[in-house]
């Protein structure tokens, strides 16, 4: 009986290990090339009303959200520092480029919504720079360094799959990860007051609902972000369907527009 018990226990342990290994191997992560492209399409649908994110390198306008100019594939802003970092990187990679002369002005307007020193030709020169493969590569590099990689890293640490990692990514894109109450880290902290992530023994659905609730709260703190459809009619729809791996086809609505990825 003792020997049989040990064998049975060993078999159960092996079965559990096999299931865990298979589950881990099949779990989808957002940094897989196909899913990363999907993530970019979804973000672009909200930021640019188009899933064609590669057409957005030259996008630039002031959307009156207090952040100055918003531009490029991820919404780099003249008032939040990430546009300044991008143009500095562009200078390092290609000295003498068309945007380099705006660096003093970008340093001055950082933290404000001012266009001082940028108008009237900055938008024109941004669009010119956007035709340069070096500038496009710089935009993708800064997107990954500042937004995408930190989101995926935290998502993996929390034990969430592609959907959760995307929810984190979208939050960092919109709110950044500074010290203010609506930053990504503080959104996550608010969610931790309601639930635990899978890495801490929590249920993935419960945790992501808590995170999305906290994200909705953060969105509503600013008039420019009071429309929460990018959560409620996109991310929450996939969560309710149990689509943790962001398997296509994907259908969603954001800001009144409908989108599909086959």
TrEMBL record:
Arranged from A to Z, the UniProt key words for this protein are:
Signal
> What's one Pfam family here?
Glyco_hydro_46
Where do the TM regions start and end? none
- Signal peptide positions (record): 1-27
User: By its UniProt entry, which SUPFAM superfamilies does this protein fall under?
Assistant: Lysozyme-like
Under the heading Gene3D superfamilies, the entry gives: Chitosanase, subunit A, domain 1, Chitosanase, subunit A, domain 2
Q: What is this protein called?
A: Chitosanase
From what organism does this protein derive? Lentzea kristufekii
